[in-house]
UniProtKB/TrEMBL annotation:
Lipid bilayer topology: Single-pass membrane protein
Cell division recorded as keyword: yes
Function summary: Part of the Tol-Pal system, which plays a role in outer membrane invagination during cell division and is important for maintaining outer membrane integrity.
Family: Belongs to the ExbD/TolR family.
InterPro entries: ExbD (IPR003400), Tol-Pal_TolR (IPR014168)
Source species of the chain: Lysobacter enzymogenes
GO biological process, one term: cell division
Domain of life: Bacteria
Database matches in PANTHER family: EXBD MEMBRANE COMPONENT OF PMF-DRIVEN MACROMOLECULE IMPORT SYSTEM, TOL-PAL SYSTEM PROTEIN TOLR
Protein name: Tol-Pal system protein TolR
Gene symbol of the encoding locus: tolR
Keywords: Cell cycle, Cell division, Cell inner membrane, Cell membrane, Membrane, Transmembrane, Transmembrane helix
UniProt subcellular location: Cell inner membrane; Cell membrane
Keyword Cell division listed: yes
Organism classification: Bacteria, Pseudomonadati, Pseudomonadota, Gammaproteobacteria, Lysobacterales
Amino acid sequence: MSGTIRRPNKRKLKADINVVPYIDVMLVLLIIFMVTAPLLTLGVDVDLPKSNAKSSNTKTDPVVVQVDEAGNFFLTVKAGNKEAVTAQDLAAKVGAIVKQNDKEKLQVYIAGDGRANYQPVMDAMNILQSAGVEKVSLISQPEKGRK
């Protein structure tokens, strides 16, 4: 007999990873996400206004309603002097201005004091709306040092 011993055939170790189950799981998750993604839109349909954002170049002078810190109303028409008015006078005078001018071209601004409560500014908006004004803009002053 010879001195060589034969070993029985052993299986070689496999160094591969079976990825088939992982691919199956990934495809199932992909299908689940594709089906549920359209259902996850948690938004509200809003009809946003269209704007060209150009500066206002008008031929008519705007009507400016000012609200001071104490909640008093002041009316300035045609770049004239500002006059103190009550809520009833404001509604009557602005209503007369609306009847004389085109509603589309009439510009009405509210200038509220920064220290004033918000309620008098909202009251001015309600008064102007009841007087027939369709569009009201708010005047603000940029902070110093900002462009």
